Amino acid sequence: MATISAAWGPLNSSLAQLAHRQIEALAKASPEEPWLASLHHDRPANRELYRDPRHGFVLLAHFEPPALYRPPHDHGRSWVVYAVQQGEIEMGTYDRVPGADGTEHLAHRQATLLRQGCASVYLPGDVHDTLCVAGPALLFRFTERDLKHEDLTEHRVTRFKEHNGVWSAP
């Protein structure tokens, strides 16, 4: 986290790549390290590991059971790095597409399987879903800002709903 904090500034390719490398390296840590052994023992659904007091970025750990599906969503103004420490997570990506009636819906772009030690970056506005295909899975989620605040207070996170096989904003 110190390396990311030292390089912190407005989002650009260099910062996103640095965060990707750092969070991916974290996902490759030995499960015998005490902090990681504790996570594996407790298996928290959500645990904050670090919050930068100066820049506000947050690192969380999530254990997800097999077959847990999180529908398409974005992260508001935030960019995010996900990394898998244990298990496998399928991350689907979507594009927002205007419909003939003026409404917006999602078109599935691709699915990527994140395995142990792999990370992926999602920029502001990116829409994705997650499916735990081999679990329990331990994910690390690095967020540019506190997503609870972004979601519950600022109401900037969009969670898409499915209706007749079409994903659209509520």
From TrEMBL:
InterPro entries reported in the protein's UniProt record: RmlC-like_jellyroll, RmlC_Cupin_sf
Name recorded for this polypeptide: Cysteine dioxygenase
